[in-house]
Sequence to fold (492 residues):
Amino acid sequence: MADNPMLKFVGVEQDYPAKRAPGDRKGDFDEIARAYAMEKAEEQSARCSQCGVPYCSVHCPLHNHIPDWLKLTAEGRLREAFELSNSTSTMPEICGRICPQDRLCEGNCVIEFSGHGAVTIGSVEKYITDTAWKEGWVEPITPMRDRSNQSVGIIGAGPAGLATAEYMRGHGYAVHVYDRHDRAGGLLTYGIPGFKLEKEIVMRRVRRLKDSGIEFHEGFEVGKDATLEELRAKHDALLISTGVYKARQLKAPGVGAPGVVEALDFLIASNRKSFGETVERFENGELNAAGKNVVVIGGGDTAMDCVRTSVRQGAKSVKCLYRRDRENMPGSQNEVRNAEEEGVEFVWLSAPQAFEGQDAVSGVKAVGMRLGAPDASGRRTPQADPGSEFDIDADLVIKALGFDAEDLPGMFGSPDLSVTRWGTLRVDHKTMQTSLEGVFAAGDIVRGASLVVWAIRDGRDVSGHMHSYLKAKAASAPAPAKKKAARKKEAV
Fold:
């Protein structure tokens, strides 16, 4: 009987792909980690304990079959590993790059609990599908049957929308994706910097969907180019997956001064530059950190993206102010370590009180914080510590305080579209359908600002509900109406 290729965690140490030296990586927006070689991917996969209750899968929002594709990788059966990985996720190589594995799969790995260090799940996941692309195993979608007499409209080409488009095309429907940006991908394209997710990784996914027959309407703004009602009349079902883009505001004296900018404006400008575009607000220095003392306010992943982008743009200094301590920040600890290696200074337990400067911001007046009793969410409430005020020089202040939903009923010209008190879309959670018949919603516009992996999960779930809805709709339509509908689709 052949030796078991697994259970090597006692004799084989945890080993992530080597990171480029901070001095090298600060000069560009390329990804910071090198890829595994096949032998190293097999070796690290073989550390998996194949435990009876795979907590890695349980804590993955997609419930990926992680132990199974680790075993296949360890055995050198990489194509099978890819097919299994791809069976539960539409973007495994993207999740392998940007998921906070330290909080999800790897953070719940059984051998991590035993002190041997988690299996490097994210790095192996990235390696499997990157290899699949290189070898030509990733092919356009082949529909299970032709249902193109029914069409689906998807508003928003972020991860939830792209995942839904893939599944619905797989079911055979005609799929149209509408997005207000000139490139699909949402925050994958314009919000996440290249050092975490190189843009070609996203663009090749979009090209595959286009090659599969999905029609993209880029630069299309619902409410201006067409109302929601007009799209409802055109399609048999709609999905709203716009994400949440309205920046949360900070109330403090001087917050409106030139040089105090929104995180997303800053990141979009940087990512557009990476596509070779001319960006006026970057060229005139407004959204360019070069030579400046930069202060980023916030402690989430967006704040980490901003501080590390500022370093690469040539900032004179970069500080991150966060009102809680390191242990209570929402962002990835891996990102904090990467930022510290690149020269970012974290000022924990601090918050801005005012912004100084006449014609432009010149500094931040801040105060030290302390953590009080837990609030309703269970997190300890930050409170100002009297007498702990201090000043920080700043030529550019970036507000990274999170995002809320935009006023979609107003933007879309659809006042009957019901929202929650947070502005997110209200859905029937059994069907994921909104208050409007045949209009579904998924991703951050329903759950609030969250992780890419949850958006993909929502896209997978809503596609099942939409498929059931469309099958029932087709079955209940009178025969003449079915023929008329088919002619209508052909004319579109």
